[in-house]
Design a protein that fits this description.
Layout: H1 5-18, E1 23-28, H2 31-35, E2 45-49, H3 57-67, E3 70-71, E4 83-87, E5 101-106, E6 109-113, H4 116-126, H5 129-142, H6 146-154, H7 159-179
Parallel strand pairs: 1-6, 2-4, 3-4
Antiparallel strand pairs: 1-2, 5-6
Helix pairs in contact: 1-3, 4-5, 4-6, 4-7
Length: 186
């Protein structure tokens, strides 16, 4: 199942209605862009950053089941399945502290995300083609200048991640200058 903006809103509404307690989920990955109107972007998963989310695991698991979502699946997943994936620090590293931005409230569910520059920094670490397209979209959509991105990169906890992100930012600058978006020079 591909999750686009309409599916995301429906999932959040169903999940918010199914929860027994108030929950805050901090989204990372592709879903924040999708929820903010990024066109032509789909994903089967909703990545939740554990460290900045607040939920009762049992309640969230039951609400996911009632909403037709898988909760933090491990192993094989059907291509038709939509799921909540809990992401803990490990392969993915985000700054220890950051302010969150509210995407919306859906019944008992509040959905938040890191600031766009933190999302950009995290996507620059991996630097896949899709990640770089997302970076360009965020920069253009929110007018994020280089200084904010550089600050977010400097706050990544892993030196190797910082180096990868800085290298990929050079590529993004080249792409953006070719599209007419341009970024503020640092």
């Amino acid at each position: 199942m591909a999750i686009d903006v309409d599916v995301v809103a429906d999932i959040f509404t169903r999940l918010g209605d199914a929860l027994e307690q108030s929950v805050t989920l901090c989204l990372i990955g592709s879903t924040p862009g999708i929820a903010n109107g990024q066109p032509d972007r789909q994903t089967p998963d909703i990545d939740v950053w554990y460290s900045r989310s607040d939920y009762d695991t049992g309640d969230l698991h039951r609400a996911c089941t009632r909403s037709g979502l898988l909760f933090d699946p491990k192993g094989e997943i059907s291509p038709d399945a939509a799921y909540i994936q809990i992401v803990r620090p490990g392969i993915v590293q985000l700054p220890a502290e950051f302010e969150t931005e509210t995407i919306g409230r859906f019944g008992k569910l509040t959905v938040v995300m890191p600031p766009p520059e933190v999302i950009v920094a995290a996507k620059l670490v991996r630097g896949s083609d899709v990640d770089l397209q997302d970076v360009v979209w965020w920069i253009a959509q929110r007018g994020i200048d280089d200084r904010r991105i550089e600050d977010a990169i400097e706050n990544l906890p892993n030196p190797h991640d910082r180096e990868s992100a800085q290298g990929n930012m050079v590529l993004v600058r080249l792409v953006m200058n070719g599209t007419g978006y341009g970024t503020q020079p640092s």
